[in-house]
């Protein structure tokens, strides 16, 4: 049984007989997308973990892409009616959109077990544990026999618009060069199943022999990594033409470690 942002008003804090609960089915998975307090934030979704596994995409409160301005949201790609609904309850409605996307992306929406969304964002819960990570949505039940605790919380990030699934990678870059410079470092991944756009690894002061790490949420599952593209830029014209390279780049895939 899949709960798509179960309601918060009149249900949160009530007995299990009233609301969705683990006892309602052999396996209950829940997607939480609008868990901010109803007063004053108008959050429609229940906050506590109530299933066998509970997913909190983007932290469970503010969904990526729902912070658009009024005009751009109402004049939506899916039409004015859909855009108006999104303006009124964008976060709440994301749950069914994630679920429908999950049907066509069996390897997408990987949820990482973590103590909080902040810890997840910092990379403390990467990569997946040995038993793997569940896929939020239609294929969550593949994880049914791997549950060890009564209640499990899983975190992930999503795209701002369809298609919503993202795939998480840990990128570690050790720089090479002769002197410190300022600027930014971008990396793009190339693989057997596709390529990513450029993702920023770090910016500011760049020092040769230093190592920089970033966790990126890529818009495509590249499969087996075949090539990594490295780019750095110092943001302004420098008459000394400084040079900077990558001594090593390490890519770690969250799903299979």
From TrEMBL:
Reaction equation(s) it catalyzes: long chain 1,2-diacyl-3-O-beta-D-galactosyl-sn-glycerol + H2O = long chain acyl-3-O-beta-D-galactosyl-sn-glycerol + a fatty acid + H(+); (9Z-octadecenoyl)-glycerol + H2O = glycerol + (9Z)-octadecenoate + H(+); 1,2,3-tripropanoylglycerol + H2O = dipropanoylglycerol + propanoate + H(+); 1-beta-D-galactosyl-2,3-didodecanoyl-sn-glycerol + H2O = 1-beta-D-galactosyl-dodecanoyl-sn-glycerol + dodecanoate + H(+)
Keywords: Cell projection, Cytoplasmic vesicle, Disulfide bond, Hydrolase, Lipid degradation, Lipid metabolism, Secreted
Major subcellular site: other
Keyword set includes Hydrolase: yes
Domain PLAT: 167-257
EC number: 3.1.1.26
Domain of life: Eukaryota
GO molecular function: galactolipase activity; lipoprotein lipase activity
Cellular compartment(s): Cell projection, Neuron projection; Secreted; Zymogen granule membrane
Gene Ontology biological-process annotations: lipid catabolic process
Annotated Pfam families: Lipase, PLAT
Residues spanning the signal sequence: none
Pathway: Glycerolipid metabolism; triacylglycerol degradation; Glycolipid metabolism
GO cellular component: extracellular space; neuron projection; zymogen granule membrane
InterPro entries membership: AB_hydrolase_fold, Lipase, PLAT/LH2_dom, PLAT/LH2_dom_sf, TAG_lipase
Gene3D superfamilies: alpha/beta hydrolase, PLAT/LH2 domain
UniProt topology in membrane: Peripheral membrane protein
Presence of the UniProt keyword Disulfide bond in the record: yes
UniProt record similarity statement: Belongs to the AB hydrolase superfamily. Lipase family.
Protein name: Pancreatic lipase-related protein 2
Organism in which the protein naturally occurs: Oreocharis arfaki (tit berrypecker)
């Amino acid at each position: 049984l899949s709960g798509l942002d179960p309601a918060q008003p009149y249900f949160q804090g009530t007995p299990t007989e009233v609301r969705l609960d683990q006892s309602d089915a052999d396996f209950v998975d829940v997607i939480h997308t609008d868990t901010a307090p109803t007063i004053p934030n108008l959050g429609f979704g229940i906050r506590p973990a109530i299933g066998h596994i509970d997913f909190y995409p983007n932290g469970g409160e503010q969904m990526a892409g729902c912070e658009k301005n009024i005009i751009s949201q109402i004049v939506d790609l899916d039409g004015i009616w859909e855009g108006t609904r999104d303006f009124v309850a964008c976060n709440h409605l994301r749950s069914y959109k994630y679920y429908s996307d999950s049907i066509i992306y069996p390897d997408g929406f990987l949820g990482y077990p973590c103590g909080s969304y902040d810890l997840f964002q910092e990379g403390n819960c990467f990569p997946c544990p040995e038993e793997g990570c569940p896929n939020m949505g239609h294929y969550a039940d593949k994880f049914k026999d791997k549950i060890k605790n009564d209640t499990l919380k899983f975190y992930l990030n999503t795209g701002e618009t369809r298609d919503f699934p993202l795939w998480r990678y840990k990128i570690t870059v050790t720089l090479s060069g002769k002197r410190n410079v300022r600027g930014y470092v971008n990396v793009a991944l190339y693989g057997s199943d596709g390529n990513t756009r450029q993702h920023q690894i770090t910016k500011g002061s760049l020092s040769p022999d230093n190592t920089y790490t970033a966790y990126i949420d890529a818009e495509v599952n590249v499969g087996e990594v075949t090539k990594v593209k490295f780019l750095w830029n110092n943001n302004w014209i420098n008459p000394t033409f400084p040079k900077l390279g990558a001594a090593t780049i390490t890519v770690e895939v969250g799903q299979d470690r």
